[in-house]
Amino acid sequence: MPHDFAAFDTILAADRFADRHIGPGTAERDAMLRALGDASIEALITRTVPGAILTQNPLDLAPPLTEGEILDDLRIFAAKNQVKRSLIGLGYHGTVTPLVVLRNVLENPGWYTAYTPYQAEIAQGRLEALLNFQTMMAELAGMAIANASLLDEATAAAEGVALAHAVHKGKSTTIAVATDLHPQTRAVIATRAAPLGWTLTDIEPDDIAAIERAAPFALVLQYPGTTGGVRDLTTEITAAHTAGALAIVAADPLSLALLKPPGEMGADIVVGSTQRFGVPMGFGGPHAAYFATRDSLKRHMAGRLVGVSIDAAGAPALRLALQTREQHIRREKATSNICTAQVLLAVIAGFYGVWHGPDGLARIATRIHLAARIVAGAATAAGFTLRHDTFFDTIALETGAQTDALMARALAAGFNLRRIDATTIGITLDEAITHAELKSLTTLFTTGAEALASPLAPLTRRSAFMTAPVFHAHRSEHAMLRYLKRLEDKDIALNRSMIPLGSCTMKLNATAEMIPITWRAFADIHPFAPADQTEGYRALIETLSTDLARITGFAAVSLQPNSGAQGEFAGLLSIRAYHAARGEGARDICLIPSSAHGTNPASATMAGYRVVVIGCDKAGNIDLADLDAKISQHAEHLAALMITYPSTHGVFESTIRTICDRVHAAGGQVYMDGANMNAQVGLTSPAAIGADVCHLNLHKTFCIPHGGGGPGVGPIGVAAHLAPHLPNHPMRDDAGPATGYGPIAAAPFGSASILPIPYAYIRMMGPEGLREATSIAILNANYIAHRLAPHYPILYTGAGGTVAHECIIDCRGFQATTGIQVEDIAKRLQDYGFHAPTMSWPVPGTLMIEPTESESKAEIDRFCDAMISISTEIAAIAAGTMPRDDNPLKNAPHTAAELTATTWSHSYTREQAAFPLPYLTTTKYWPPVKRVDNVYGDRNLVCSCAPMTDYAAAAE
Ligand SMILES: Cc1ncc(COP(=O)(O)O)c(C=O)c1O
C-alpha cells in the first residue's frame, strides 16, 4: 500500500465509535484516577475485581466498525430478508405507523430513552400517554380497567391464567383452552402450566358439555378465532362461570371497533396484542400486549397500572398505582414476575388511537372487513368454501387439492398466506392493503365477483368507546405534533441529563444503533414467514448469539425471552429440565440471597421451586455460614442458587467462586442474574465466576433503550450441559433445540426487530472498546463514591475499598436529626434537573447510583455538585437555620406556577428553590407538578382518562 494510504488509515482508525459511546476522555479519566489515587485504570480494576476471576484475555470478537460501516454491515443482513406481503395473521398484521408518531416518538430519544415512571413528577408525559393506552384498551375490550402493557399476547394470556388460579376457590388444576386459540398462545400457556402441575384440556367451539366436564379454573378463548371465525362467546363464558372458572378472552383490538366486546359477553379478563395499532411486525416483536379486567380483579392484575391522583397543591397528577412493585413487595408470593414490559410500544399504540380516534379505528376496521369480504367473494365465486361464514378480517378457505398451487400462486404474486392444514388456506387482511394488492389477491381466484355481504350484524358493536376528549382533539398533524412535544417536554429522559439509576444501566443508546430498526427489511417481516425469506434475520441472530456466548463464556444462547424476568424464568426452566433429565426431578429448592431483585423469587416460584432465603453479612456479601447451613439442610432437594454478580449491593464479592463451588458440590446449579453485566464484560464472565446459566438484560448492558419501561430483551446463555434444555418454539424448528421445553414467548426469537441494537453496539465497540467501557463504568462509579463519601456514607465497598459499577449511599441518618427522608432527596434532585438514583432498593432509605461509562466527568460532577448542594441544605436543617417542616427538600419539587405566584410564604427564597446552583439559570427543567400524593391515588383509584377537571374537583 502506498505510504499516504497507510497514513490515511491511521487517521481514520483514530475515529473510534468507542470514544463517542464512552463519556470521559483521557484528561477526564486521568483526573478521576488522580482523585482516587490510582496510577492507572488497570490499577483500579485490579483493586476492584477479584484476581481469581479477572481475565487479561481479550474477548474473541470481531474488530470494531465505524458508525458508517455498521450501517453498511446491517444492510447486508437486511438484504437477505425478503419483504413480502404477509397475510398470515396468527396475531401479527401489516400496519401503518402514523409518520408523525414514527418520527416524533419511535425515533425520538425524548421518548425512547426515558426510564420506567417510578419518579412520577418527571414522568407526567409518558404517564399520560399510558393512561390513554389503558383507557383505549379497557373501553375497546368492554372492561373496567386495563394495565399499561404486558410482554405479548401469549404471556398476557398466561398471566390471565395465573390470576384465575390465584382467585380460584376450588381445587381445579385444569385450564380449558379453545381449539381455535392461536397455537403459540396455547404453547406458552402449556410451558407456564407444566412446572405448577396444571394441565390443559382442549375445548371445541361451543362445546358447553366439554367445559362442564373439564371443570377448569380458567377457560381461554380467542376472538376472532385463530382461523377467523367470529362467534358469540356468552354461553361458553357462562359455562366457565358455572364451573367456577374465570373466562379469559384473547381478542384482536381492531376487531373490537366493530364487534361486540368480550366484556359485554361476561369475560373476566381480556388480553391481546396491540401490534396492529401502528407497531411493525418486526419478525415477532416487540409489541405491547394489553390486559383488561373487571373492577373486582384489579388488585390481582400483573404489570404496571397508571392511576390519577393529585399533587401536593391539589392539582391533578398521574403516577403508577397499586402493585407497581409487586414482586419487590410480595417476592415469592407474587403471582407474576413481570417487571420490564412494553411501554414504548404501548405509548405508540396509544398515540395511534389518539391520531385516529374511535371513528378512525372503526373506518380502518370497516375497510379491512370489506377487503376480507371482497376476497371471500372472489374465492367463493371460484367454488371454494369458507370454513367460517362469520368472519372479520380472516377467511379460512377449504382449497382441497388446489392448496399447494394456490399457495405458490400467491407467493409468486408477493403474498404469504397461512397454510392452516393440508387443505385449508388462511388469508388475513390488514390496514396496509392497497387497491392494487386487493385486485391481485382476487385474481388468484376469479375476477369480477361481488364482495360477500357482511356477516357481522348479530355481533355488531353498539356501545361507544374512546369518548375522552384526547381521542378527538389531535386530528391535524400540527395538533398531534404539539401534543407529542408537550408530553415529551414534561419528562426527563437521557437527552436532558444523566439518569443515574442503580441496577438499570441507563447508558447511551446510540443513533447508529437505532437507525436500522425501522428499516422495512427488519420491520415488515412476519414472525411465521417462510424461513427462506428470513435468512438475514437468521444470520443476525446467529452472529449475535455467538458474540453473546463469547462474552458470557457459555456454549449456547436463546434470544427468545423478552425481558430480564422472562430470562430468569427461562433459565430456571432449563435447570429444572436438566435435573429431570438426570432423574433428579425432586430437586425443587432455590436459594436466593435476601438482597436479590424481587423478580428472582417470583420467577423461581413460577418455575415450581420453593424459595429459601440466604442472609447477607454486614458488608453486604452472602453470609457463607448461612449458605452452608441452608445447603446442608436442603442438600437432596437443592436445585439452584440465584445470584446477582456483582451483587445488588454494588460490590464484587471475593468469595463468588467458593459460593458456586459449594452449590455445585451439593448437586445444585448456579443461576446468575445478569442485570449487572455492565461491570463484567471483557473483565470476567458468568462462566468464569462459575455460573451455569445467566440472563442478560440487553436493555441495560447492550444498549437497547429503556423506552420508559420496555421493550427489553433478556436472552439466556447456558453452559453445554444445559444447551439441550433451552426454550424452543412450535412454529419454527430453528428457534431452539428439539429437546427444549417449549416457548416462553409468543414469537420464536422474542423481540427480534430490536436485535440490531446490541449487535451494532458489540460490533462498533469491538473487544477492546467493550473492556474499556466496563472499566470506565467502574471508574465513574468509584469517582462518584469518592466525591460523595464526605457527604453521604457509602454503604458497601469490596475488599479493595472500591465499589463495582454502582454505589449505594446511605440516607437513613438524616431522619433523626432533620426529618429528611430519602424520598425528599430524590424529589429535590428534580429541582436540580436530575432523575433520582434508584430509591430504597435493595436497602430501604438508600440511593443506588450507577453512572455508566457513557457519562462524562463534567456531567458526573454536575450531578455530584447537586447532591453535595442538597447535603448542605440538609446541614442547614440540622443546624436549625432552616425549619424541619418548611425547607426546599420537604417542599420539592417546585413548579413554575408556585414560584411565580403572588404569595410566597416559605422560609427560603424563590431563588433557593429554583436556582440553587448556577448552571440552573441557563438549563432549568421545570417539573410540571408538585410531589404526587400516592395514598390519595390508591384510595381513589382512577385508571382511565376523563376530563382532568373532574379530578381537580374531587380533590377540593
Ligand atoms: C437485579 C435485577 N434483576 C432482574 C431484573 C428484571 O429485569 P426486567 O425488568 O428486564 O424483567 C432487574 C430489573 O431492573 C434487576 O435490576
UniProtKB/TrEMBL annotation:
One of its GO terms (cellular component) is glycine cleavage complex. The modification N6-(pyridoxal phosphate)lysine is found at K700. Its EC number is 1.4.4.2. GO terms for molecular function: glycine binding; glycine dehydrogenase (decarboxylating) activity; pyridoxal phosphate binding. It comes from the Bacteria. Residues 19-445, 622-727 form the Glycine cleavage system P-protein N-terminal domain. It comes from Acidiphilium rubrum. The glycine cleavage system catalyzes the degradation of glycine. The P protein binds the alpha-amino group of glycine through its pyridoxal phosphate cofactor; CO(2) is released and the remaining methylamine moiety is then transferred to the lipoamide cofactor of the H protein. The gene is gcvP. Residues 773-894 form the Glycine dehydrogenase C-terminal domain. NCBIfam families: gcvP, PRK04366.1. Belongs to the GcvP family. Its cofactor is pyridoxal 5'-phosphate. Keywords: Oxidoreductase, Pyridoxal phosphate. GO terms for biological process: glycine decarboxylation via glycine cleavage system. The glycine cleavage system is composed of four proteins: P, T, L and H. This is Glycine dehydrogenase (decarboxylating). The keyword Oxidoreductase applies. InterPro entries: GcvP (IPR003437), GDC-P_C (IPR049316), GDC-P_N (IPR049315), GDC_P (IPR020581), PyrdxlP-dep_Trfase (IPR015424), PyrdxlP-dep_Trfase_major (IPR015421), PyrdxlP-dep_Trfase_small (IPR015422). Coiled coil: none annotated. It catalyses: N(6)-[(R)-lipoyl]-L-lysyl-[glycine-cleavage complex H protein] + glycine + H(+) = N(6)-[(R)-S(8)-aminomethyldihydrolipoyl]-L-lysyl-[glycine-cleavage complex H protein] + CO2.
